[in-house]
Specification:
Distance between the termini of chain A: 159 Å
Structural class of chain B: mainly alpha
Number of domains of chain A: 2
Number of domains of chain B: 2
Structural class of chain A: mainly alpha
Shape of chain B: globular
Number of helices of chain A: 8
Helix content of chain A: 55-70%
Radius of gyration of chain A: 51 Å
CATH architecture of the largest domain in chain B: Orthogonal Bundle
CATH superfamily of the largest domain in chain B: RNA polymerase sigma factor, region 2, helix turn helix motif
Strand content of chain B: under 5%
Number of helices of chain B: 9
Oligomer: heterodimer
Chain lengths: ~140, ~180
């Protein structure tokens, strides 16, 4: 083809001669997809999808855990004064001493124990001052 | 090809968006590459501009009014991206875009991704001397073989004005080939 007489629209078409590296298109769309803003793809997270259930579970958990506290608050209001208890115990014949002891802890019982160790001198002194002593001894059988 | 409106809806719906956009890439990546390559001339720059073009297309899908065709809207974005790229690159290098383009064309022979003979290099040298608008019209009409109506939608110029531009461009190129 003689360049000097070349007619652009009637002569054979001249292509650009531009080449593309081999395999270029294999990776191209992936490259673009990675640059696309993620929020636009609307990936719904586990949290967002189950928001309702997570909040419900959290609410139930809080309620459950707070039950003992609520109970305690109510118990405080119902707490009886010690005078009331004493009055109840004295008036109510059906409660025996044994019942009371059963309700006490070992520790409480220890505390209640009275030290009854009395020296021999104290006993002798007490006996010698007692005018009825002879009678007690002779009446013994 | 399915109804364009339907396809645009698929592109906008988050559920179908990814698949639809992959399809858009498949249909348009090669023609848009070729258009951009005729403007920025080397492969690596074309790769950059093409990626930016698709990212921009994706970001602006929701603003696509549908009063122009998807095809011409995308070609317009690609053309603008390519021209902006050349202007920015020449500014960074402290030169004009014309001077930079001339330099690239003169070095085409050493470009590993250029497989052309003397006539192809000469044609590029002749194109570089044209005003920007005539260059664009010539590249779209001659290399990309777009119709005047399509070019008119992309560049927003009347068909009559485009025909005149192309005619001038062809005359100048033939003159260049005759005298050089």
């Amino acid at each position: 083809m003689d360049m000097k007489d070349l007619k652009i629209d009637s002569s054979e078409k001249i292509n650009t001669g531009f080449q593309i590296p081999e395999g270029y298109w294999d990776a191209f769309s992936e490259k673009v997809m990675q640059r696309i803003p993620k929020k636009e793809t609307k990936v719904i997270s586990f949290y967002a999808r189950n928001k309702k259930w997570i909040y419900s579970a959290a609410a139930i958990l809080v309620l459950t855990l707070s039950l003992p506290i609520v109970n305690q608050l109510q118990n405080k209001e119902q707490e009886l004064s010690s005078t009331e208890i004493e009055n109840y115990l004295t008036l109510n014949k059906s409660v025996s001493d044994d019942d009371l002891v059963n309700l006490l802890e070992q520790e409480d019982i220890e505390k209640l124990k009275v030290n009854t160790s009395i020296t021999k001198d104290a006993i002798e002194g007490e006996l010698s001052n007692n005018i009825d002593l002879e009678q007690y001894i002779t009446n013994e059988n | 090809m399915q109804d364009e409106k339907e396809f645009i809806n698929e592109l906008l719906d988050p559920k179908t968006q990814n698949v639809a956009f992959q399809k858009l890439l498949g249909n348009y990546q090669k023609p848009l590459y070729n258009l951009i390559r005729t403007i920025v001339l080397n492969h690596d720059d074309t790769d950059d501009v093409l990626q930016n073009t698709f990212v921009k297309i994706f970001q602006n899908l929701k603003n696509f009014k549908g009063d122009s065709k998807l095809f011409s809207w995308m070609y317009r974005i690609a053309t603008n991206e390519a021209i902006t790229f050349i202007n920015n690159k020449s500014k960074r290098n402290g030169t004009t875009s014309e001077a930079m383009q001339t330099k690239i064309v003169e070095n085409l022979q050493s470009d590993v991704y250029f497989d052309g003979n003397e006539i192809q290099i000469k044609l590029q040298k002749a194109i570089v001397l044209l005003p920007e608008k005539q260059q664009l019209v010539f590249k779209m009409k001659y290399f990309e073989e777009l119709k005047y109506e399509q070019i008119s939608e992309v560049l927003g110029t009347s068909v009559g004005a485009l025909k005149a531009s192309y005619h001038h461009a062809v005359k100048k190129i033939e003159e260049f080939l005759k005298t050089n």
